[in-house]
């Protein structure tokens, strides 16, 4: 008598159930990729702003303008206390690609510049309401610029 090899119907059903349970538990982690990508992009923008502010400060020291309340560098970037101001003529000019109006939208309010992904938002208050933005607060006489990522709404 020849013995047949293979799987029984019960073994097949058990394997399918196990694969289904694994898929259900793993799927939410992989389906949230857009949120993770947005948060990472905001962190990248924060890094770009930090680097740009440091480079501008170095240039302002070279030009002897690091202690002035308001000035402009030879590269046409407005500064306060050596760092870019929180306006389109300051940090937006310093960060390459931020002023292209392609990928990013920005707005200013109360000495802060808010930047987020371009789309349906217009103005600083709309950007703040998204809870998915980078907040750049300009330097003061006692503090360097503050750059904060708010990503709870991404």
From TrEMBL:
<feature type="transmembrane region" description="Helical">
    <location>
        <begin position="12"/>
        <end position="31"/>
    </location>
</feature>
<dbReference type="InterPro" id="IPR045584">
    <property type="entry name" value="Pilin-like"/>
</dbReference>
<dbReference type="Pfam" id="PF07963">
    <property type="entry name" value="N_methyl"/>
</dbReference>
<keyword id="KW-0472">Membrane</keyword>
<protein>
    <recommendedName>
        <fullName>MSHA pilin protein MshA</fullName>
    </recommendedName>
</protein>
<keyword id="KW-1133">Transmembrane helix</keyword>
<dbReference type="InterPro" id="IPR012902">
    <property type="entry name" value="N_methyl_site"/>
</dbReference>
<keyword id="KW-0812">Transmembrane</keyword>
């Amino acid at each position: 008598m020849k013995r047949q090899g293979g799987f029984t119907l019960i073994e097949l059903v058990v394997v399918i159930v196990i694969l289904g349970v694994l898929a259900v538990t793993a799927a939410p982690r992989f389906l949230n990729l857009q949120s993770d990508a947005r948060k990472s992009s905001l962190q990248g923008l924060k890094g770009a702003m930090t680097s740009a502010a440091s480079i501008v400060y170095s240039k302002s020291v070279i030009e002897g303008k690091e202690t002035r309340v308001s000035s402009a560098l030879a590269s046409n970037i407005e500064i306060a206390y050596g760092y870019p101001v929180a306006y389109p003529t300051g940090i937006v000019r310093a960060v390459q690609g931020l002023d292209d109006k392609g990928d990013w939208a920005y707005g200013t309010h109360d000495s802060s510049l808010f930047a987020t992904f371009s789309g349906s938002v217009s103005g600083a208050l709309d950007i703040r309401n998204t809870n998915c933005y980078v907040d750049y607060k300009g330097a003061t006489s006692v503090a360097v610029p503050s750059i904060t990522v708010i990503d709870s709404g991404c």
